[in-house]
Amino acid sequence: MTRLEGWESALFEALAPHMAAPFAWGASDCFLMAMDAMRAVTGEDPYGEHRGRYKTAAGAMKRIRGKGFRDLEGAMDAICERVIPSLARRGDIVSLMADDGIALGVVVGDGILCKAPAGIQINPLWTALHAWRVG
């Protein structure tokens, strides 16, 4: 995977709808926001077949496990190289602990853009558990 020319503005455009939308499984959740970021940065959509195909946390996990992965981090390991979280750069994907378990977020500067009930929140980069290089 390589980063496309103009990925910076494409990333902003991909994240903007998630900033405005409330959290909704299968529409605007942490996984889809991360995949939208990846598609904007690289043009690739490795799990595109799952878009809009689940409506609950259980449905999301059923899809992930149906692909042979234990969790979100396993799904990320299959498509991107892990890097030390402190070396993550804008557009990379990270995992972090959320109220209901592991979630994915997108690195934006020195913070992590994460889905939240009302839209998004920004967490410090040091809260990342793992990170994956996108492009």
Description of the molecule:
The N and C termini lie close together (5 Å). Helix content is 32%, strand content 26%. The mean pLDDT is 96. It has 135 residues and is of the alpha+beta class. The longest helix is centred in the N-terminal third of the chain and has 14 residues, at 7-20. It has a six-stranded antiparallel beta sheet. The chain has helices at residues 7-20, 30-42, 57-66, 72-77; strands spanning 81-83, 93-98, 101-108, 111-116, 119-124, 128-133. The protein has one domain (7-133): endopeptidase fold (from Nostoc punctiforme) (Alpha-Beta Complex).
Itemize the secondary structure elements and their pairings.
Layout (H helix, E strand, L loop, with lengths): L6 H14 L9 H13 L14 H10 L5 H6 L3 E3 L9 E6 L2 E8 L2 E6 L2 E6 L3 E6 L2
Antiparallel strand pairs: 1-6, 2-3, 2-6, 3-4, 4-5
Helix pairs in contact: 1-2
